[in-house]
Amino acid sequence: MTIGNTVGAERLSRRMARGCEFLGSEVAILGGAMSWVSERNLVAAISNAGGFGVIACGAMTPELLDAEIAGTKALTDKPFGVNLITMHPQLFDLIAVCAKHEVTHIVLAGGLPPTGSLDAIKGPGTGKPAKLICFAPALSLAKKLIRSGVDALVVEGMEAGGHIGPVSTSVLAQEILPEVAQDVPVFVAGGIGRGEAIAGYLDMGAAGVQLGTRFVCATESIAHANFKKAFIRASARDAIASVQIDPRLPVIPVRALKNAGGELFTAKQREVAQLLDTGSVEMAEAQLQIEHYWAGALRRAVIDGDVEHGSVMAGQSVGMVRKEEPVADIIAALMGEAVQALEKRAA
User: Fold this and answer.
1) Helix (H, G, I), strand (E, B), or coil: what is residue 162?
2) Could you tell me if residue 251 is inside a domain?
3) Of the candidates 272, 250, 270, 254, which has an alpha carbon nearest to the alpha carbon of residue 312?
4) Do residues 57 and 46 touch, judged by C-beta distance below 8 A?
5) What is the pLDDT at residue 288?
6) Three-class SS of residue 86?
7) CA angle at residue 107 from 220 to 36, to 5 degrees?
């Protein structure tokens, strides 16, 4: 896409250069990996529009991921990545599928990379190693990940949709960017819905940003019409975080639009806690049951359109999603806003 040749456009291109070079994209916008939403159609559309699409593997089997990567390649010849969940029981098989397709970037989410996973992605015998991106919800973890050899970080605040941490995007950016942005590219995520915010984080030293919620209502998104309508009608305060009811069960909070599905999740937590009480499941299995619950609840909302009982995961930027429009228009609008913001700062 063309950003322009004004002072603001030149400033934006210069600030995004590191992120664009790392991703191999025209603009330094990483697509947030949203289960059931970030599939071949949306991922390819983001990459074709100049951004960097990312497949949400979620609970996919290796066979399903294999088909999804092949399907994405049929829709774009631009680079794209794959997001893998660290707790997936077949993580190493999924990494092998990515290597088979020579996926250029792998995003690991859900905690510290398990032993051996970095070597599997980047080590000898992997052919052309993929670039590895990890999430850093704290400065200490960011530094640890850099020492371990990750290539880039995503700093995601609690304003984001889906699984979230306890700290806001603005605080994390202030804490982490000055310390590590010179070491590896850092992409800021969570609650970003306009180009002015993108320009601000780039000015702070970010290499780019990650956006998820903003792309849900893209024309190319396969999300059900009911799901998209829920986003368009929602305001920022409608996107709330789930509550942990048992301290023994380390449930990562999830941000979604308030509905009956939230109450169903509370009931699911009680059910799993009872299984722990009786010794019917180990902690790892309990955590996996929660993940499978979210995958199912999200599918009910995204694919089936049950936005009352399913999980309508959304970030607080949902209030800035006002209509269904093509990905290319969304990215163009964001870049236009960023250019104008940097133009004003140059005046």
Assistant:
1) strand
2) yes
3) 254
4) no
5) 75
6) coil
7) 35
Helices then strands, counting H and E runs in the chain, come out as: 12, 11
Tokens of 210: 């990650």
28: helix, strand or coil: coil
26 φ, ψ to 5°? -85, -35
> Do 81 and 185 belong to one domain?
yes
Summarised one tens digit per residue, pLDDT across range 254-301 is 899 999 988 888 888 888 888 888 888 888 788 777 777 877 899 999
Tell me whether residue 283 is in a domain. yes
Name the region of 344 (left: φ>0; alpha: ψ -120 to 50; beta: rest): alpha
Strand order in the sheet with 81-85: 29-31, 208-211, 186-189, 152-156, 131-135, 105-109, 81-85, 54-56
CA nearest neighbour of 162 among 327, 324, 317: 317
Q: Please indicate, yes or no, if residue 285 is contained in any of the structural domains.
A: yes
| C-alpha–C-alpha distance, residues 161 and 244, integer Å | 17
Could you tell me the CA-to-CA distances from 114 to 109, 122, 254 in Å, in that order?
A: 11, 14, 22
CB 206 within 8 A of CB 182: no
Which residue, chain included where needed, has tokens 């915010």? 197
> Do the domain assignments include residue 267?
yes
The answer to whether residues 268 and 341 belong to one domain is no
- Where in the sequence is the domain holding 291, given as residue range(s)? 225-302
